[in-house]
Each structure stands twice: as structure tokens, then as C-alpha cells.
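> run fold Cell shape-determining protein MreC
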Amino acid sequence: MLTIQSHSYHRSQYIHSANAVSGYTYGQINSVKEYFGLRAKNEELAKENARLKELLFNKKDTILEGNATPPGFLSDFKVIQAKVIKNSYSKQENYLTLDRGNLKGIKGDMGVISDRGVIGIIDKTTKHFATVISILHTNNPMNGKIKNSNHFGSLTWDGKSTGYVQLIDVPKLATLKKGDTIVTGGQSFIFPENIPVGKIDKIFIDKSTNKFVINVRLFNDMTNLGYVYIIENKKKREKEILEAATEKDADKR
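> ok
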């Protein structure tokens, strides 16, 4: 200490070394702060993605003139961001748990997707949580179609691989090939049409129905899920009431 205090060179070297140590320490502290700040940043990005998806799902095919936006133009679909806090994928009937519930407007029969594609359908909710019937569920059929040909079928899971689901009941008239994209169909009001599901991997013929059975490789890695998006179709109830009334009238005839 006497040497450092009495010689300017030694004093400058000490100060330089001390600054280097403190600078390194502050750098490490800042890195830790940035690491723990990633969660907040990811949350903000997920919220922004939800907003953009809501705009996308409500986009019409027609182009509006000028800046005019008709009433209800962006009212069909609502998108709510959530995070997966529990995920099963090794059972025959798999479920996920989300960190959002009915306080955020989440209800049963809402569709759940990620940035890559379909995840499942909301099953039950509490104030703060919701469970999701996974696409990896042997008793949870969904409507799907071949993107290039618009032929429809039912998306099911045979309970074997977490990376694949099956599109069944596709007519043999359908034009399809390996690598074609499978998306959600327009027959269900749970999901908007054309949400990605996966790509055709293998094609079989079901001898009992004489229809195609398609093995679909999922875009999602169902074993590694983070933020997801819940889709509310605000016109779903209207459609259900109309179809129920139509079926009731048909039964009377």
C-alpha cells in the first residue's frame, strides 16, 4: 500500500487493475440481469405475436379501398397469449396446462396453436389456469385438409409417435403427394382455416373404407412447448345454434 501511495506509476496500475475487476464484475451482474430479463422480454414478444395473429386471422380476402374499415371487420377472432406450464406426451390421452384461465376470457372448446401450428383444444378452465386436450390424444379428432387440393379428412392420433398424427377418411379422388402441407379445414369453427398442422410423410389405403390414410409429420415438437395462443371464434355459438335448429327441423320432416 505504501508503494502504491508513493509512486504514481504503481498507483495508476492499481487503479487500472481495480477498474478492470470492477468492470468485469459489473459486466457479469449486467449479464445476470439481462438473463432474468429475458422472461419479461419473451412475454412481451408473445403478446405482440398474439396481436399480430389476431390481425392475420381476421384478414379478409378482399382489399379495402382507402382507410375505410367496416364495423366488425376485426371482430371474428380473438387471440390470447399463454404459456405451457405442464405438458404430457407419453400417454394415449395427453393434456397440457396453461397459465391463463377464465379471468382472461378463456373457455372450453377454444383452439390452441403455437407459432408452428396446431396444439390442441381447451378442455377445462379455472380462474387462473386451463387444460388443453393435446393433438396427441387418441380421442380428439379435428378437421383437417390437404392445402393444395382442399380435400378434407379427420385428424386423429394412433397413439404411437409424438411426431406424427394421421389424416383419415380422405377420398381417393384427392390429389396428394409426400411433402404436401396439411392445414386446418373450414368445417370447424374452433380453428381459423389454414392453420398449419404438418407435412405428408406416408400415404396408405384403408381397405375397409377404400379411402386414404395419411401419416402427417407435425410442424410442432410436442415435447418442447413454450408460449402458445388461444383462439376464440366469436361467431362459434351463432353457428352452433343455427346448425342445431337446422338438424331439429330436419328430424321433424
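Residues 18-24, 61-74 have pLDDT under 50 and may be disordered.
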